[in-house]
Every structure is written in C-alpha cells, then in structure tokens.
User: Fold this.
Amino acid sequence: MLETAVYDTKPYDRQYLTAATHHIKWRFHEFRLSADTAVAAKGAQAVCVFVHDVADRSCLATLSKLGIRLLALRCAGHNNVDLAAARALNLAVVRVPAYSPHAVAEHTIALLLALSRKIHRAYNRVREHNFALNSLIGFEIHGKTVGVVGTGKIGRITAQIFRGFGAQVVAYDPAPSQDWAAQQNVTYLDWQALLAQSDIISLHLPLLTETHHLLNAEAFGRMKRGVIVLNTSRGKLIDTRALIAALKRGAVGGIALDVYEEEEGIFFEDLSDQVLLDDLLPRLLSFPNVLITAHQAFFTHEAMTEIARVTTTNLLKLETAEPWLPGTAL
Assistant:
C-alpha cells in the first residue's frame, strides 16, 4: 500500500483525504514541510503539502535521498516549490489546479457585501442589543465600475457575478480573452485605465515575479479616491505598507482581504492566547473599513472534496505508472 507523508494538516484535511480512498497509508503531520522536517517522510513514497510548506532545493534533495518519488500539492499555487530542483532530482510534482473557482469567486462577493453594507459591524452591535443605524450606511454595487484583474477561471466567474448585480465590469489581463469578454459584456482596459476608472478592484492573479506588489504606492496613487479593493488571490500582490498609507490618507475607501502578505505562521493557526508578533496586521485590523478572513475563500465542502479526489487519484497513479490527471503536472 502506498505510504504518504502529509504535512501541515488540520482535522479537516485528514477527514477529506481519508474519506477519498482506503488504498493509501496516511502519515499525517501537523508541522510544515521544510529542509529541517523533510526527514519525517522517511519510509514513505510520496509527500503531500499545502501552501505554506517550503519545498526548496535543500528540502527536495533530502526527500529524494529518502526515496520520495512524488510531491503532491493539495492547492493550486506552487511558488513554494523549487520546480527546477524537482526536475533535476527526477521528483514528480502535481497540484490541484482548479478545485472550485466558484468557492473563491463567491467568497470575494461575500467579502464585498459584508464590507460595503458593514454587516460584520452590525452583527456585533445587534448581539449587544444596539439597534442604532449610526455609521452603518453602505453603498450599492449596482451601477459601479468593477475592475477585475486577472480573467482566469476565478476572475471570469467573479466578473459574471458582478454583471448580475448590474455593475459595469472592466478587466485587465496580459492575455485577454476577447470572445469571453464580448459574450459577458466585459471591457478589457490597460492597467492604468483600469486603476483610474474602477470604483471596486478585485485581484485574481497568481503570485509571479511580475505580480509581486502589483498594488504599490504608485498604483494606489492612480486609483479613484475611495476605491474598494478585494484580494482573494495571493497576499504578496499588495504592498501592505503602501496599503496602510493609502488607508490613512483616505485614498482607499475600504479593503477586504482573504490573504495577507506575511500570513505564513499566522493564518490557519489559533493565536488567540498569544501576542501577535507581526506589526502590520494589527494595524490593518485597527481600521474600521478593513475586513480580513484567514485564507478561507477555498474552504467549502465541494472544494475540499475535489482537492481530496484529485490529490488521491494522482497519488494512486504513482503505483500504477498511469499518466497524471490532465493539467495537474508541473
């Protein structure tokens, strides 16, 4: 039976992976994969990791020496894996490229609605029997111009939901899909024009060298005053210090985040009885027009089921030498 070492696991990971198949011997670890913890995979044939595990060259070299033949990511992003080193070591790497674009798109809209109608603040007030409406005035999405940055699967679904609200949707993508845009009544703009025209900006891009700090001081300076920014993609797309400066001067009217630039070691953990050592996150949380969730946009029953299905299917293919599922190999 195939033995797989699974790093950075929570109870829900174990629940969905074990339910997906009984033909894998799971070895679950709560700690993350790194060069120091790679030795814990000894005796396994495959390793399964998540977004904050670090599979750098040193780590992969250790895994290779231990006889690991497959690194399976139970996520879409892979910037935490040294793919060149993996190829050199003849270590196969697979991922889950699209577990549920609807989950992330719907969470993006949920964040905006909560922020725009101040639902989170109203909820806390009502629980304290405060039914006053002071300071709870919101705004409508209908008629606003929404800039969708990145029109992959998630970006397209998000754009289509916004069109259902009656918003004008503009988009930016280095590789625009004009046929889709024409069908959905979406207009592609260049980057500067999107920044200047959008009332709401929603990010749906991978983290690459060219997208790191895409929203920086210059970008915030080119946006409409009072713009609302949404990010359910990758935290490092936004320069947090520049964002805080823009919030302080009122250039940004509100921001909703499901990801954070320095979320590693913070998100997915219960730190409620500890001092938060990060200085920027508490500053963000101090703003009344900031709403943050802890990287849960993907977290639906449908998405977790698909993550487990794709991951376990590829793991089992290691024994049968069948081709990996389409689009999953890196």
